[in-house]
Structure formats: C-alpha cells, structure tokens
Amino acid sequence: MGSEILVLAGTAASVGFIHTVLGPDHYLPFVAMSKARSWSRSRTLVLTALCGVGHVAGSIVLGLIGIAFGLGVARLEMVEGARGDLAGWAILAFGLVYAVWGLRRAHIGHHHVHAHAHADGITHAHTHDHRSEHAHPHTQSAAQRALSITPWVLFTVFVLGPCEPLIPVLMYPAAAHDWLAVGVVVVVFAATTIGTMLAVVSVALSGLQAVNLKPLERYAHSLAGGAVAACGVAMVFLGL
C-alpha cells in the first residue's frame, strides 16, 4: 500500500474519530434511551451499530453519487449541510415529544395513598396509580407502542444525519480515479466512526452502573428525551 493511501487512511481515521467524539448525538441518545428503557448492553450496542451503519452509509452513497455525476465538493457539502439541519431538527423534535410523553407517563404512573376511616373507628390506607385504572391486558397500550417505535425513529434520524467531514476526504482520491484509495477511505472512516460510537456508549453505560439513579427512575423517560433534545440543539445551533 502506497504512502499516499496510508496518509488518506490515517486522515479518514482521525476525521472519523474526532467527528464522532465531538458530536454527542453519536452516543448520548443511545445511553439515555438504554437507561430509560432498561435495554440490555447487547441490545444497546446492536442498535448503536445499526444506526452508525445507516449514518455513514447515507454520506457514502451521496459521495458516490457525486463522483458518478462529477459534482464538486462545495455542492455536496451544501447538500450534507441541508441534511444536517433536517436531522438536527428531527432529533430535537423527537427529544421534546419524548420528554413531554415521559412527564405525562411519570404523572400517570405516580402512586397515591388514600386513607379510609370506618364508622367502627378502624382506619386503613391503600395505594393506586392512574395507569392501572386504564390497563387493557389484551391490547397494546399507547406507552408500549411509543416505546416500540423509538429504535426505528433513532435509526431514521441517523440515516438522515450527514458525515460532512467524509466528503472532502472521499473526493480527493476520487478526483484522481484512485478507486483503491476511495475504498480504503470508506472502510476506515466507517470502521472508526462506528467503533468509536460503540466504545463511547459502552464506557458510558459502565460508568452509569456505579451511579444510583433510583431517585430519578420515575422521570427516566423525560430525562432521556431532554438529553436527546439537547443533542438536537447542539446540532442545529452549534453545528456539532
């Protein structure tokens, strides 16, 4: 392998790593949702990997289309920027909706204590929550439906989300028709991005195991939604 390809591979790896670490949307949503929904580590990492594949694949396809039609880097970056804005607003909206839903769920699931005094002087108390009063065991609840579509929403948003730094690195060898170098850039960038996502999520999950989150358990979904919305704010207004 030539020295130029090695330089491109190193550049692709560096760009993929920095792009991922500096973008909290690459890992924070998975950590937050995993804790809120009590996902297993393996399930969280599989979903992270799938979203990472979709995230990188979208930009690779766009780059290959640009190569096929002879589009310049500036035009492709403009398209990627538009995709980035769309993805940022989408994840912001999803986070806000999920946070509001989580607050409502926390209120519905809140237990109330009722004391009763009888004529003979005996008193007793019992607890109940609003959710149990409306449970239907043979139908899927709105909460279950909301939870079941969450992974698909995250995947869709990540497919929309661009990897802007990939475009110039990809287009450089493409301009020279060095297809081996193009392949190396794609593979190295994808592996580095997805690997970094998995590593950060795994480390964060391990760290959270040592933290007592029991007092916040009631608001787990709303806090997760807030974390996802914060990622959307960072994407839209800070360009992360």
Architecture overview:
With 240 residues, the chain is mainly alpha-helical. It has one domain (3-109, 148-208, 219-237). The chain contains 9 helices and 2 strands. The chain has helices spanning 3-22, 28-37, 41-69, 73-108, 130-133, 142-160, 166-175, 179-208, 220-237; strands at 111-117, 123-129. A two-stranded antiparallel ribbon has the order 1-2. A hairpin with a 5-residue loop joins strand 1 (111-117) and strand 2 (123-129). Helix 3 (41-69) runs parallel beside helix 6 (142-160) and helix 3 (41-69) runs antiparallel to helix 8 (179-208). The longest helix is centred in the middle third of the chain and has 36 residues, at 73-108. It is elongated and about 60 Å long. It starts with a helix and ends with a helix. Residues 130-142 have low confidence and may be disordered.
Secondary structure elements and pairings:
Blueprint: H1 3-22, H2 28-37, H3 41-69, H4 73-108, E1 111-117, E2 123-129, H5 130-133, H6 142-160, H7 166-175, H8 179-208, H9 220-237
Antiparallel strand pairs: 1-2
Helix pairs in contact: 1-8, 2-8, 2-9, 3-6, 3-7, 3-8, 4-6, 4-9, 7-8
